[in-house]
């Protein structure tokens, strides 16, 4: 054990776990910091990978040898590639083929312009950049196709993240952009597969054979395997069992088979995983079932490892000449022009939308991020791209992805925000708001209408005039303090119940635990526990979320589910259940003690004494039952009040999450706001009253003092009135 702590490299598992821990912590911290400026977490993961590599921390003596020893890199890279395979399978699952078919008249022409022009410019740039390839003996066709595919890709997952963060995912621009990116990615992945084929063999003829194998693989998977799998899935779907264990295992077997086949064909395994994702049936709940279980572990665990592995291969110190930096600037400009201009013009011709809408489409399609870095890493693995070109394209992908969100906000959101209407024409503004409210399922669009519903509703909502509803960090701090204090109150009441149980115990060691020292320790533990279970608020909460009565609430469905689960179980249900258990144990202890002190007295021969002593014994038994009944009543009243007053807020939180995507009219939102504030008032009453019930029901001393206080207050009021 001591030797292992001194040198964890003696265990490959310990080394890997240490690398995973450091990677996840740094990626999450950087992702959270960048989220304050509306950047996707992939930017934080890219920067974290660069920090781990030779550009920053690699220059520290002993860093690479201790944290990233050479012997551990193959294992780390293998796990990262496994994550890439599952991620590509997830992308195949997420592609909505129905939307692509529905919008094909608009999507196909724009997709053609978005592929042909960037790939053509990428081929021209490849001829220029071949001199930076450090003399790698690689096919010019493979090098040209890799550079061209790097120009042609748009980051499908990053696009979805950006659109969701800006509430544009369900807007026409969001639907059209996602469909366009999906078609584009399918075509460019095929181009990349062809490039991998040309790089795998020595001659061009072998590359052509591999390309034909690739086309045959696609035909077999789409036109043979997919219909067979659909028939099997339809059989289980008729029996309402489409998420059957055998169907799910079959999906993963198809993933492994596809990845293995393309890897053996000389193409990267990612392509087979992507095609396998496209072959999964879209009917029923199978896609949603698989996506929910794959997304979290892939995005939060495997992708940071992949980018850390990518950062270890990124050496920005190689960009050390003015010529390279000048070429990098030209590369960024060419990549942006190659995407923005053709997409903007094609969208304008096909949709006749305003110019700001078409330009926003071009800006969105210029997003790179995850997918382009995957392409670059594959090129490095196949010895197609040199470290210099790899570093240049990593900088390009980071800059273009980083610039997408602020440019889109300035260009699109400010022009297309129905809540920012001029006050010069209130009637026209109100009409526009109502029309927009009928066309959009967005809580933010309901807010102006809600404010017209009357002063009472506006006062009861209580949140609109609060600075914490407009400043995000104040929003997070306020909710964190509220929920932490609420958690602390409930668990402190539970601690008081445990303390009463310890005091009533016949065990001396238990009674010795009822000291001020242990009470302070318990309250400190509860405070730490309250902070720990509510720490996700710092990440999840934001200003003006969708479809919630609060203007400061969780920003995603997953965050809302986590928050609701915490509020329901960790703040209310578990403490109340523990109070019930320890309260009943307290009553049991008191009965055992009183049973010992009320043993029947030995009966003597005197009849009168017998009668008197029997009566005395019965009197003590009745007094014991009266104390038991009073203690039980106090305990039941406390639990009933806590349950009745707290249960509505639990229902409201789950209702808010289950109706996350449901359309809500202005009247429905107004009613929900009113009910929510009533529920919140009941919750505060429960937090205060339960403590007084616990204290006043604990004995005659507290109760008599309370009644004396109330009598003195009434007496003072009467005297003042006289």
UniProtKB/TrEMBL annotation:
<feature type="transmembrane region" description="Helical">
    <location>
        <begin position="107"/>
        <end position="129"/>
    </location>
</feature>
<dbReference type="GO" id="GO:0016020">
    <property type="term" value="C:membrane"/>
</dbReference>
<feature type="transmembrane region" description="Helical">
    <location>
        <begin position="675"/>
        <end position="694"/>
    </location>
</feature>
<keyword id="KW-0406">Ion transport</keyword>
<feature type="transmembrane region" description="Helical">
    <location>
        <begin position="324"/>
        <end position="343"/>
    </location>
</feature>
<feature type="transmembrane region" description="Helical">
    <location>
        <begin position="635"/>
        <end position="655"/>
    </location>
</feature>
<feature type="domain" description="G-protein coupled receptors family 1 profile">
    <location>
        <begin position="463"/>
        <end position="694"/>
    </location>
</feature>
<feature type="transmembrane region" description="Helical">
    <location>
        <begin position="75"/>
        <end position="95"/>
    </location>
</feature>
<feature type="transmembrane region" description="Helical">
    <location>
        <begin position="355"/>
        <end position="376"/>
    </location>
</feature>
<feature type="transmembrane region" description="Helical">
    <location>
        <begin position="42"/>
        <end position="63"/>
    </location>
</feature>
<feature type="transmembrane region" description="Helical">
    <location>
        <begin position="388"/>
        <end position="412"/>
    </location>
</feature>
<feature type="transmembrane region" description="Helical">
    <location>
        <begin position="13"/>
        <end position="30"/>
    </location>
</feature>
<keyword id="KW-0472">Membrane</keyword>
<keyword id="KW-0812">Transmembrane</keyword>
<feature type="transmembrane region" description="Helical">
    <location>
        <begin position="266"/>
        <end position="282"/>
    </location>
</feature>
<dbReference type="InterPro" id="IPR038770">
    <property type="entry name" value="Na+/solute_symporter_sf"/>
</dbReference>
<feature type="transmembrane region" description="Helical">
    <location>
        <begin position="141"/>
        <end position="165"/>
    </location>
</feature>
<dbReference type="GO" id="GO:0015297">
    <property type="term" value="F:antiporter activity"/>
</dbReference>
<dbReference type="InterPro" id="IPR006153">
    <property type="entry name" value="Cation/H_exchanger_TM"/>
</dbReference>
<protein>
    <recommendedName>
        <fullName>G-protein coupled receptors family 1 profile domain-containing protein</fullName>
    </recommendedName>
</protein>
<dbReference type="InterPro" id="IPR050794">
    <property type="entry name" value="CPA2_transporter"/>
</dbReference>
<feature type="transmembrane region" description="Helical">
    <location>
        <begin position="561"/>
        <end position="585"/>
    </location>
</feature>
<keyword id="KW-1133">Transmembrane helix</keyword>
<feature type="transmembrane region" description="Helical">
    <location>
        <begin position="241"/>
        <end position="260"/>
    </location>
</feature>
<feature type="transmembrane region" description="Helical">
    <location>
        <begin position="177"/>
        <end position="198"/>
    </location>
</feature>
<feature type="transmembrane region" description="Helical">
    <location>
        <begin position="210"/>
        <end position="229"/>
    </location>
</feature>
<feature type="transmembrane region" description="Helical">
    <location>
        <begin position="522"/>
        <end position="541"/>
    </location>
</feature>
<dbReference type="GO" id="GO:1902600">
    <property type="term" value="P:proton transmembrane transport"/>
</dbReference>
<feature type="transmembrane region" description="Helical">
    <location>
        <begin position="294"/>
        <end position="312"/>
    </location>
</feature>
<dbReference type="Pfam" id="PF00999">
    <property type="entry name" value="Na_H_Exchanger"/>
</dbReference>
<keyword id="KW-0813">Transport</keyword>
<dbReference type="InterPro" id="IPR017452">
    <property type="entry name" value="GPCR_Rhodpsn_7TM"/>
</dbReference>
């Amino acid at each position: 054990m001591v030797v292992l702590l001194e040198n964890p490299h003696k265990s490959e598992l310990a080394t890997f776990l240490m690398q995973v821990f450091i990677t996840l912590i740094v990626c999450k911290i950087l992702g959270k910091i960048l989220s304050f400026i509306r950047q996707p977490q992939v930017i934080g993961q890219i920067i974290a990978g660069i920090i781990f590599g030779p550009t920053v921390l690699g220059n520290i003596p002993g860093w690479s040898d201790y944290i990233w020893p050479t012997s551990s890199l193959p294992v780390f890279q293998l796990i990262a590639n496994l994550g890439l395979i599952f991620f590509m399978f997830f992308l195949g699952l997420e592609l909505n083929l129905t939307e692509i078919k529905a919008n094909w008249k608009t999507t196909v022409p724009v997709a053609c312009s978005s592929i042909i022009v960037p790939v053509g410019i990428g081929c021209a740039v490849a001829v220029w950049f071949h001199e930076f390839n450090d003399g790698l003996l690689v096919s010019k066709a493979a090098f040209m196709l890799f550079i061209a595919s790097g120009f042609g890709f748009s980051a499908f997952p990053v696009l979805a993240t950006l659109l969701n963060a800006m509430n544009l995912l369900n807007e026409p621009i969001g639907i059209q952009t996602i469909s366009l990116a999906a078609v584009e990615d399918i075509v460019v992945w095929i181009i990349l597969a062809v490039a991998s084929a040309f790089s795998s063999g020595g001659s061009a003829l072998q590359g052509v054979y591999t390309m034909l194998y690739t086309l045959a693989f696609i035909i077999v998977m789409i036109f043979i395997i997919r219909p067979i799998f659909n028939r099997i899935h339809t059989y289980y779907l008729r029996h309402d069992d489409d998420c059957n264990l055998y169907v799910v295992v079959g999906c993963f077997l198809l993933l492994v088979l596809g990845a293995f086949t393309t890897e053996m064909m000389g193409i990267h395994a990612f392509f087979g995983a992507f095609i396998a994702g496209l072959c999964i049936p879209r009917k029923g709940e199978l896609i949603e079932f698989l996506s929910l279980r794959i997304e979290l572990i892939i995005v939060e665990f495997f992708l940071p490892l992949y980018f850390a592995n990518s950062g270890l291969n990124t050496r920005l110190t190689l960009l050390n000449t003015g010529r390279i930096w000048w070429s990098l600037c030209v590369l960024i400009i060419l990549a942006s022009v190659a995407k923005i201009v053709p997409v903007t013009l094609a969208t304008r011709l096909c949709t006749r939308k305003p110019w700001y809408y078409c330009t926003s489409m071009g800006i969105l399609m210029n997003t790179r991020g995850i997918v382009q870095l995957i392409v670059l890493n594959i090129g490095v693995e196949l010895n197609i791209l040199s470290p210099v070109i790899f570093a240049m394209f990593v900088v390009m992908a980071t800059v273009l992805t980083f610039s997408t969100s602020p440019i889109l906000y300035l260009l699109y959101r400010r022009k297309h925000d129905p809540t920012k209407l001029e006050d010069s024409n209130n009637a026209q503004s109100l009409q526009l708001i109502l029309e927009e409210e009928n066309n959009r399922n967005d809580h933010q669009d309901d807010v102006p209408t809600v404010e017209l519903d009357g002063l009472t509703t506006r006062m009861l909502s209580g949140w609109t005039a609060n600075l914490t509803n407009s400043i995000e960090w104040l929003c997070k701090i306020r909710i964190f303090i509220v929920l932490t204090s609420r958690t602390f109150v409930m668990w402190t009441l539970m601690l008081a119940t445990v303390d009463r149980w310890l005091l009533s115990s016949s065990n001396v060691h238990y009674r010795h635990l009822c000291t001020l020292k242990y009470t302070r320790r318990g309250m400190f533990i509860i405070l730490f526990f309250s902070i720990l279970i509510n720490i996700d608020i710092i990440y999840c909460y934001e200003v003006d979320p969708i479809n919630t009565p609060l203007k400061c609430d969780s920003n995603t469905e997953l965050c809302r589910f986590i928050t609701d689960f915490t509020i329901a179980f960790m703040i209310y249900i578990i403490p109340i259940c523990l109070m019930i258990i320890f309260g009943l144990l307290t009553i049991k202890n008191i009965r055992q003690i009183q049973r010992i002190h009320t043993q029947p007295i030995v009966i003597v021969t005197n009849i009168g004494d017998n009668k008197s002593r029997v009566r005395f014994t019965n009197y003590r038994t009745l007094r014991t039952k009266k104390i038991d009944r009073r203690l039980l009543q106090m305990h039941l009243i406390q639990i009933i009040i806590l349950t009745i007053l707290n249960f509505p807020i639990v229902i409201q939180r789950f209702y808010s999450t289950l109706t996350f995507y449901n359309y809500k009219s202005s009247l429905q939102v107004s009613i929900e706001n009113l009910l929510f504030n009533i529920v919140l008032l009941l919750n505060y009453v429960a937090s205060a009253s339960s403590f007084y019930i616990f204290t006043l029901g604990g004995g005659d001393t507290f109760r008599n003092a309370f009644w004396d206080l109330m009598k003195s207050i009434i007496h003072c009021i009467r005297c003042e009135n006289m």
